[in-house]
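As a warm-up, study this chain.
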Amino acid sequence: MTVASPGAVVLARIARSTFPLTGPAGAEFMLWGDDPLTAIIGLCNAAAPLSSELGASNGVGWKLHTGQVVRNGVVIASGLPIPLKGEALGVRVLPGTPAQAQFYRDGQQVASVDVSAGGPYYFAVSIAATKARGLRCVVNAGQWQGLSPAALTGWAQAADPIPTIRVASEDYMSSASDSPANTAFAGIIATEGLSTISAVSFWMWGNESRAGSAQVRVQDAAGVLDAAALSAIRDVPVTVRQVEQGQSMAGAVPVARYVLDRIEVEDDSYKRLTFKDAHSDLDEPLSRAVFLPTHGESIAWQPQPVVIGLVRSVPATAVNSDGSLQWICDSRLQSVMSVRDRAVELVAGTGYSLVAGGQQLSLQSPPLGPLTADVSTIGADRPATLQQALSDVFGRIGKAAWQSADALAIDQATGYAGVGYFADGNSTPREALAAILGSYCADWWQDGDGVLRLARLIDPESVADASLAFELDLVELAAPLVVMPDLAPGLTRRMGYRPNAIVLADGDMATGLDQVPPSIRKELSASHRGQVYATGDLPACYQHAEAAPAVESCFDSRVDAQAEIDRVVKLYAVPRNFYAGRMTARPDLQLRPGQVGRIRYPRYGLAAGRKVIVTAVTSNPITGEQTLKFWGA
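Now compare it with the structure written out below.
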C-alpha cells in the first residue's frame, strides 16, 4: 500500500488496510517527501471515523512528529524518539485481553501499549502535507523483507479451510489408534496408479531440472469428487503414502509429496487429478527486499541484489543524489575486504565505511565510475560453507523441508572452505542451488516425505563393501538391462574459481598502471579471477574435455577448486556407463539417489558384480513397477 496526499491535507483523515485482523499481525511504514515528517501510524477498528486523526477514537497511534502515543484521544506515552524520513517504522498487534500494540523504529521496539478498542484491527496511517505528494508513505505488510517483527509477522488473511480428500487404490479404513481415527479412504484410484520420480543430475551430464508432476486417474461414478472438481480447490498439499490393507496408517510408508494443480472431469465415470511440484517455491524470487522510492525514483521497487558468502566485485547502487551513499545487497554484511572506484582501491575508514545495518557504503566523496566491493556475509575473507549457503537460500523462502545434515556431511567429506554466490534481483532459489551445488558436483532430490535431500557424485568403488546400501541381482528384471555409455558432454579439465559478480570493461577502469596494475586489471575483467587445470589420463571417449571451456564454480579458494576438478577428472579415468532396468517383483526395494550398492547381471562384464551409484528411481506403488538407473564403470 502507498499513501500520498492529493494536495494540502491535515492529519484529520485515516488511510487503513483493506481488511482487519486480530493478530498477531504487523506492518512497516516508510515515509519520504519534501514536507516535514508529520504523521501518525498505528491501529484502528471499523468504528474509527476516517475523517479523524488516527488514535483520536477507536484506535491507537504513534505521533511521529511529537514522540507520543495516543489512544482514543488521550496521550498514554511520551518521550519516544523522533524518527527521520526514510526509516522503517513498524506496528504490530498481539491478541489478548486487552490486545497489545508494539511500535518499532528501524527494527528496535520503542513502545508497547494496550489497545482498549475492540478488534479486529486495521493498520492505519494519517499524514499531513502542504502540497500534493508533499509527504508520501509506503507500507510493507510482509510482501518483502523488513527490519522488525512487525514486517516479519506480516498482515495476511488466513486461507479458508479446505476439506481433506482421501482416496486410495482400494477401500481402506484407518484404525482407531490413527489420527484421524476410523476414517474412510475411497478406493477409486484407477489401476494404472501413479509414477513418482527421484533423480539427480550433475554438471558434466547437463544438470537437468528436478521439477516434477504427476497425474492420477480416478473412477468416480458415485461422484465422490464432484464437489471438489466444481470448486476452485487448487494449490493444496498432497501426501502419497503406501500401507498394507488391515494395517494402521502409523505404519504407512511415505511415497511422495505434491501440490494439487487441478481436478478435471473426463466423463461421468472418470476424473483426472493433476499434481505439480511440491517445491514450486524454488521458482520464487531469491531477493526478499526491494529498493524503495526513498532510495531513488529510478530504482524504486526493483529487487535488491543478493550476496551469499564471500563474493568479489559486487556492484554498488547509488541511493542518494551524488552517489556518496551506495547500497550493496539485501542482507547484512559481516565484512568488506576491499572497495574499488573504477578499479582503484579505496582506503577503509577514510575512503569509505559500512553503514545502515551493514548494507550500505558511505563514501568520503562521490565515486568517479563503477564502484565494486569484495564482501562477505560470513566474516572477514570467509566464504559460506555448503550448509551455511543452503541455509541462507532456503531461509529466504521459509523452507524447512530440507536435510541440513546432508550439506554438513558434504562439508565434512570435502573440507572445502566454501562458496560465494551473487545474483541480481531476477534470480530464483532453484538457480542458486544449481550454481552452489554444482560446484561440489552435488544435486538435490525429493524423498517420500517431500524433504529435499542432497547427493554427490562419487566413485562407487571408493565405498567399502561393508557400507554398501544394497546387493541386487538383475536377473529379476522384467526386461533386459539397458546399458548406455556416459558420454559426459560437459566434462572439462578446467574450473573457474573466485567469480566476479560484475565483469569490468577497459572503459570502466582507470587508465593509470600505477593505479590499476595489469594483474588486477586482468582479474577484474574476467568472469573468474582464477582458473585451475586437472592433469591425469582420460580415455579416448572423453577427449573433448581437453579443449572444453572451464566449468564455473562458486569456490573462492584455489585449493578448493583444484581439489574438486582433480576429483572429477579422476572419476572419468575409466569409461563410465549408465545401467537402467525395470523391476516388478520387488515392492520392498526402496532405493534412493546417491546410494551405492552392487549389481550383478550375466552380461556386460557384470557377472561378478560391480559397484554403482543410484541416479534415478521411478516407482509406481500401485502397480509395483520400478525403473532404476545406476552409474558406474
